[in-house]
Write a structure and sequence with these properties.
The protein has 204 residues and is of the alpha+beta class. The protein has two domains: 50 residues, no CATH class; 134 residues, no CATH class. 24% of the residues lie in helices and 25% in strands. The protein contains two helices and nine strands. The strands form two sheets. Strands 3, 4, 5, 6, 7, 8 and 9 form a seven-stranded antiparallel sheet that branches. The chain has a two-stranded antiparallel sheet with strand order 1-2. The longest helix has 25 residues. It is rod-shaped and about 105 Å long.
């Protein structure tokens, strides 16, 4: 339609001309929406495509969670206490072997010099994992996680997830200010706007 004053083209839903600022006469354009004891009075304005959501209430205090699931799972055959014990024994034994080799002058033999280092590394890893899981149930190491099940066994797991907003892939990462980082499920396409609560107890 055209404005009767300035002859500009405008939408029929407009209550006035945005060019000459003329206000048109309204003809019963008020809408009342009754909701129980309360009502919302809405006057149709210059936004013909505006929408009002009427439906389920949104809990703004509850953050959404992404659909994180276990992708692969390997179960260690022993429990944390035994891992810590074996790690400690191996660590002490490797240290003793290195000291003995140095003492006897055998450390220069390249065929055997690397072996104590490998054993000490594996032993330290077993000791660390076993001791840590005496107090914790989950550790995330960027590419994979370590998780203790209800029977006390430790699993190596990888995860996969889907963003609930844009359906892109999500990754589990530590996110937040330095000194206040927390594990979050983060969309690879929009890490700032699409990052969600990650709860390892809900993994399936």
């Amino acid at each position: 339609m055209k404005c009767k004053i300035c002859d500009a083209d405008i939408f029929e839903d407009y209550n006035g001309c945005p060019y000459c600022l003329t206000t048109f006469e309204k003809n019963n354009r008020d809408i009342n929406i009754n909701t129980g004891k309360k009502s919302i009075n809405i006057d149709i304005g210059n936004l013909p495509n505006a929408r009002i959501h009427v439906g389920d209430n949104y809990d703004l205090n509850k953050e959404p969670t992404s659909n994180i699931k276990i992708n692969s799972d390997y179960k260690f055959p022993i429990k944390p206490i035994w891992m810590a014990f074996l790690g400690l024994v191996g660590f002490i034994g490797s240290i003793a072997s290195i000291i003995s080799a140095l003492k006897d002058g055998l450390f220069t033999n390249t065929d055997i010099s690397f072996l104590p280092h490998i054993i000490i590394l594996i032993s330290f890893l077993l000791l660390f994992i076993g001791f840590t899981f005496l107090f914790k149930n989950f550790i995330w190491l960027q590419l994979f996680g370590l998780r203790k099940d209800s029977n006390g066994y430790i699993h190596i797991i990888t995860l996969k997830g889907k963003c609930p907003i844009c359906t892109n892939v999500t990754k589990v990462k530590y996110y937040g200010a330095e000194g206040n980082k927390a594990l979050r499920s983060i969309c690879i396409e929009n890490s700032e706007g699409h990052n969600f609560v990650f709860d390892h107890t809900e993994l399936r």
